[in-house]
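To whoever is on call:

I kicked off a structure prediction for a single chain this morning and the downstream step that reads the tokens threw a length-mismatch warning. I double-checked the sequence; it's 139 residues and nothing unusual in it as far as I can see. Pasting both halves so you can look.
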Amino acid sequence: MPINVLVVDDNRVFRDSFCELLNACYDHLQIIPAGDGSAALSLTRQISFDLIILDYELTSFSGGDVVRRLRARGTALPPIILISAHPDLPVIARLHMVSGYLQKPVDTASLREVLDPLIRQPQVRSAGPTLWRIQEKRQ
């Protein structure tokens, strides 16, 4: 059964290469790309996602704004992973109470460290800061 993954980043080149990296690392992913927060919000109304990977520094409004708008709907959310080159991303991710974060540039090892628990163990897929103990070991 495919795992529906929403990848949101306004940089098309990064978004395309990141989706290629995801496909190279994992089988059975149905990856849906979005170029901005508005598209992401629209897609989440149409498709049930198992995972959202969201750029924090979007041009239209921030990834944090997207997270707030998704939570305001009052429905269950999949795990959300923030992705950014912002130096304070670990703090930002905690403040937004997301499941984890990926620091740009993303390499295969860090991608697998963050996503393996969510992709390979469906019972771990719950919204909220479930991955902090894994990521804190890296620091």
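Update from on-call: the warning came from a stale cache, not from the record. Cleared it. Sanity check on the structure: Helices lie at 12-25, 37-46, 63-72, 89-95, 108-120, 132-138.
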